[in-house]
Design brief:
The chain is of the alpha/beta class. Helices cover about 25% and strands about 20% of the residues. It binds iron/sulfur cluster (SF4).
């Protein structure tokens, strides 16, 4: 197994990290203007991998994936600085990378610029060792060995499992294919109060820290993120070389405190970055005026669906999103198919010892209950399959497949 860590960012400040915020000019110009503050001379002649969030099949401005015009601006600016630029992604399980690039609009802006798109799931992984609390090895996409500079370009979102998902967590999309899921499946770790997922993301950030972060706050997502919440228009872009500092400033713009986001707090405690605003230089001075508080993700995903019991034990966000989107779209429809005097449950995740009667077991992690007769396979399962199973209808909703 190889030892691995990304090189130190050549953009880091010697003293306090610096973060720049731009607002009100649209995604392309906000990004260009923010990057104008950075000395990009280290980019010249370097291979640069832009890593947006194109992890799901979602249209631009749905708040789920990075706005294509932010990616377009990053391509233009890093090329102008002399970089050899590509755009890469490894999406959540069940999503094809190139299809995600098409639907998010990123493929179109890349094609216009003749910029290569990289399906980071295409080739075999590279397994690397790390000295983490929750994880001791990771399967990385091979591209993590082949570029000089990695630029994390997340969209500003709340997240059911991790509070927020920003520049640090976006690097999870550099883990190979289904190996991302492993971080969601870890058992509690003796001696630690924090959730294993948060500890694992902090572990990951010890070796997968991007060289630069561009947080896209054009249209973010609040509430049940990362994909079943509501779009939150903000028209801001936040950039910085310290991903933790950039995330901490983004948190404030979202009405959050990075110290309440466990993976950021833990990573900062370990010295991987700075989240203390007293030690971050933020420009312009009026940056806090751009804030628009984001609704928190609910602590219990059954909220909003009182007719059903939702049993979630160690699921990952892909299964949560599938179930939530399914219930939002079809909850009323399926009530007509279920007996009125019976409460039905949906179980997701691999941590169930047993499930009540009348439980639909959703996703491959619940396969052990297959003999109960209400198992719907998939990793993650798609809503149209759940609908088909419950209603018996062969109807397949195209919107379901496109994540609209
Ligand atoms: S079945 Fe669902 S919870 Fe299990 S690994 Fe797949 S997406 Fe995650």
């Amino acid at each position: 197994m190889e030892k691995f860590t990304l090189s130190e960012s050549p953009f880091l400040d010697e003293n306090n990290p610096t973060v720049f915020v731009t607002a009100g000019k649209g995604p392309y110009q906000n990004t260009v203007d923010a990057l104008r503050h950075i000395d990009l001379s280290p980019v010249k002649g370097k291979r640069v991998l832009l890593k947006p969030n194109a992890g799901r099949l979602a249209k631009p401005e749905s708040g789920i994936c990075t706005h294509p015009q932010v990616v377009a601006a990053a391509i233009d600016v890093f090329r102008e600085a002399g970089g050899i630029v590509s755009v890469g992604e490894s999406p959540i399980t069940g999503v094809n990378t190139l299809e995600a690039f098409e639907i998010t609009g990123i493929a179109a802006v890349a094609r216009q610029r003749d910029c290569p798109l990289v399906d980071m799931d295409e080739r075999k992984f590279v397994q690397v060792a790390l000295d983490g609390v929750a994880i001791q090895s990771l399967k990385l996409c091979p591209e993590m060995m082949e570029y000089d500079l990695y630029i994390s370009i997340p969209v500003m979102k709340t997240h059911m499992h991790t509070g927020v998902t920003l520049g640090v967590k976006n690097m999870k999309g550099c883990l190979w294919r289904r190996s991302k899921v492993v971080l969601h499946m870890l058992a509690e770790i003796d001696g630690y109060d924090d959730k294993p997922l948060d500890l694992a993301i902090a572990d990951m950030s010890g070796i997968l820290r991007p060289h630069f972060t561009i947080v896209d706050g054009t249209v973010g997502m609040e509430g049940i993120g990362p994909s079943a919440g509501l779009p939150k228009p903000l028209d801001v872009v936040v950039v910085g070389a310290d991903a933790f500092a950039t995330d901490a400033v983004s948190c404030v713009l979202m009405g959050k405190d990075a110290y309440n986001i466990p993976h950021l707090r833990i990573g900062a405690e370990r010295g991987f970055g700075v989240i203390d605003l007293e030690h971050i230089s933020v420009s312009p001075a009026i940056w806090r005026e751009f804030a628009k508080p984001f609704a928190d993700p609910p602590t219990d995903i059954s909220i909003g669906f009182p007719e059903f019991g939702i049993l979630d034990e160690n699921s990952c966000s892909a299964c949560q999103s599938s179930l939530l989107l399914f219930l939002k779209r079809y909850g009323d429809v399926i009530l007509d198919y279920l007996p009125k005097d019976t409460r039905y449950h949906f179980a997701i995740g691999k941590g169930h010892e047993e499930v009540p009667n009348n439980t639909y077991c959703i996703g491959n992690c619940t396969r052990k209950f297959k003999n109960l007769g209400n198992f719907i396979k998939g990793c993650p399962p798609v809503g149209s399959e759940i609908l088909r199973f419950i209603t018996g209808s062969p109807h397949v909703d195209e919107k379901d497949a496109k994540g609209e």
